[in-house]
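Notes to self, Guanine deaminase:
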Amino acid sequence: MIYVYPIIHSLDVDTLEYAERVAIHVSDSGTITQVEYLDAGSEVEVGREGEEVVYANDDEFLVPGLVDTHAHAPQFTNIGYGFNLELLDWLNEVTFPTEASYRDAAIAEADFKRVVDATLSVGTTTCSYYSSLHLDATKILARVCHSRGQRALVGKVNMDSNSPDYYRDASAEESLQQTIEYVEYVRNTLQSTLVHPVITPRFAICCSSELLHKLGQYIQQQDVHVQTHLSENKGEIDFTMSLYPDDASYTHIYANRGILTSKSILAHCCHLSKQEVELVRQFNSGISHCPTSNFNLRSGITDVNELLSNGLHKIGLGSDCSGGYEVGILQSLRTASTASKALSIMHSTPSYLSLDRLFYLATLGGARVLSLDNTIGNFRVGKQFDALVINPYTAANKTLFQSVKPVNAQREHKTHKLQRDFERWLFAGTSANIQKVFVDGKQVV
Ligand code: GUN
Ligand code: FE
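result:
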């Protein structure tokens, strides 16, 4: 297939490329084999006999699929609920009771299909999911992602401490054994090119030192992804350090037990000290920025713009559903923008997250966090074709976008229509503007 579209994609943290007319050649296995930059009106050189060429309709453009680096599949059923509470109370009162119901495989089967369909339809082509602690539910989630065609990391939650009796692993050893069984299921039975296992110690409070050690050893042996929560909320940090008084910091708890690697995904990181940031950098771990959740649960505001400026580029966005109330990553991008502007106002500094950086976080940055940047994140030759076709002038936005003339004619003169359409979609668009969703070269929505 050859797709001839205007494209917008991230080449790096501060480089967003806009190109008016590009032919992206995609092989049968979904790999981008050639990217041709064309002059307006020129014809595409058809590579193979009979190869189908798809041309953009008016106003349409193509962007890479959005990457959600942190979401809890069994929490979608609570979306938008419980934000009068802070983290630890919210977990105990709202989250754990809901997750516990996924011991019932029928509930998992029905709900996870809805979750994956919903996230795909809002343009999340890749998602890193926490399942519940149940082995069966986690296998179901991995299967559903595979069968619905979503690229995903899926993990069984590990928690053997400070968790309710009705929702905890029986022991550190059992937690490890079920995790190994799950990883082997994904690798040997499911054998999906889209779905990868991820070791998922919930956070230090819910994991004994023994459990973190065992998982850390396994992670080091198996070269497998790992995801956890880190330094989200002040009350959480105090309780964590009371449980681990001999570790120098929250980040050291993970570093000292083998949990920090270049395939670690660390959610939130709202209150890291300079020393902890350096530890994260040293291990080349990724940070999942979850701004909507951080506001809702009054956790904190991560200064992602500063981290990026300091050369920490392995950062992406997480919906953290249902700490966040969003199904997709567009809302996270908007809240990330608001959060960085709030910091800029509070600190009287002129810098905040630029459009280039925001879109980087939602795509290529997310791919880097998940160590999938050789596979996805932009339209480079050799990557897989995960893409969204956007038309900002459809459905809900039609009247609005067509009726509003740019206020400043001079600005309009300088700013290309494509850039303007793209920015307006990011900040004022809806999922109704997403015309098609491709994962691995296949149309899934
Ligand atoms: N920390 C430990 N578990 C969770 C969770 O489910 N959501 C959030 N936001 N933080 C956590
Ligand atoms: Fe979370």
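- The mean pLDDT is 95.
- The radius of gyration is 22 Å.
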